[in-house]
Design brief:
One of its GO terms (cellular component) is microtubule. This protein is mostly helical. About 50% of the residues lie in helices and about 10% in strands. It contains twelve helices and seven strands. The strands form three sheets. The chain has a three-stranded parallel β-sheet with strand order 1-4-5, sandwiched between helices. It has a two-stranded antiparallel sheet with strand order 2-3. The chain is globular and about 60 Å long.
Length: about 350
């Protein structure tokens, strides 16, 4: 069985991580003090919780995770929160000085102080690592320099991330208002919604999900395959024509677990879709536009230069973003043109 290490970095990363572990505990019947409601390994031979949790002493379970942020507020919330027994204090890493939302301040100066601490803790936890990156957009950000930070971070991690998920804050905010009827969504609402997505993505790692075990499961698979066939026939979704396309479907036995008092109602079935889509070019373009507006006036650039950054890094990051945006746009255009030619031939 694989063992996963979760790394939660930055203000939003730590808060989203907290929301994720809240859901994990509910899903695996682990109390906030780390004690399991019933010993699943004895009752049913279920040890799926070991993928994310480590067993300490006296039946206590703790998270296999590292939390790191330069500003101590969110880390202090973990120390004093109801789930503080789940986190080892050595794995909650912070310093007393905030990066003040300046990427260079965290990347070049203050951040260097905790790199060794973070790497040391990861090394201690390392067994097998599942790594995914989440990039957030700046639509609901409270920091005016967020476009700088997002593009500089994307530039720095572009060659090092094996799997990245785009989290559109504005889209999640709209879901809370329009679909969940949340009057004034807070970051807690957004983070819990993201936590549900992370839970769904990792469900296949943690819970049983063999296909076609009985007639009921077989029927469920037929329904899914029929829906996919309908989508392909109607062509309501356009697929690129230059690489194999298809659907990877997995059915998991575990019903969705909802946080008490949260925005989502308790249901028995749910679906989570992850798509590699050229539509992400719009998000890159929107972010690039905001970056360009500020950078054209050299707005706030001096804050970054004071921390040791060179102005050329802004241009380089911007060029990378433009190139990335163009790759997605060209991929989409080629596919649309190919479909147009096919229609003409018919």
């Amino acid at each position: 069985m694989p063992k996963c290490i979760s790394i939660h970095a930055g203000h939003a990363g730590v808060q989203i991580g907290n929301a994720c572990w809240e859901i994990y505990c509910l899903e695996h019947d682990i109390r906030h003090n780390g004690q399991m409601l019933s010993d699943k390994t004895i009752v049913g031979g279920d040890d799926s919780f070991n993928i994310f949790f480590s067993e300490a002493g006296a039946g206590k379970h703790v998270s296999r995770a590292v939390f790191a942020d330069l500003e101590s507020t969110v880390i202090d919330e973990l120390h004093t929160g109801i789930c503080h027994h789940l986190f080892h204090h050595e794995q909650l890493i912070t310093v007393k000085e905030d990066a003040a939302n300046i990427y260079a301040h965290g990347h070049y100066t203050i951040g260097k102080e905790i790199i060794d601490l973070v790497l040391d803790q990861i090394q201690k936890l390392a067994d097998q690592v599942f790594r995914a990156s989440w990039f957030s957009t700046a639509s609901v950000s409270t920091a005016v320099v967020e476009p700088y930070n997002s593009i500089l971070t994307t530039h720095a991690t572009l060659e090092h991330s094996d799997c990245a998920f785009m989290v559109d804050n504005e889209a999640i905010y709209n879901i809370c208002i329009r679909n969940l009827n949340t009057e004034c969504p807070t970051y807690t609402n957004l983070h819990r919604l993201i936590g549900q997505v992370v839970s769904s993505i990792t469900a296949s790692l943690r819970f049983d999900g063999a296909l076609n075990v009985d007639l009921t499961e077989f029927q469920m698979n037929l329904d899914v395959n029929a829906a996919i066939a309908t989508i392909k026939i109607k062509r309501t979704i356009q697929f690129v024509d230059w690489c194999p396309t298809g659907f990877k479907v997995g059915i998991n036995y575990q019903p969705p677990t909802m946080v008490p008092g949260g925005d989502l109602a308790k249901v028995q079935q749910a679906v989570c879709m992850l798509s590699n889509t050229t539509a992400i070019a719009e998000s890159w373009a929107h972010l690039d536009y905001k970056f360009g507006l500020m950078y054209a006036k050299n707005a706030f650039v001096h804050w970054y230069l004071c921390e040791g950054m060179e102005e050329g890094e802004f241009s380089e990051a911007h060029e990378d973003m433009v190139a990335l945006e163009k790759i997605y746009e060209e991929a989409g255009v080629d596919s649309v043109e190919g479909e147009g030619e096919e229609v003409g031939e018919e």
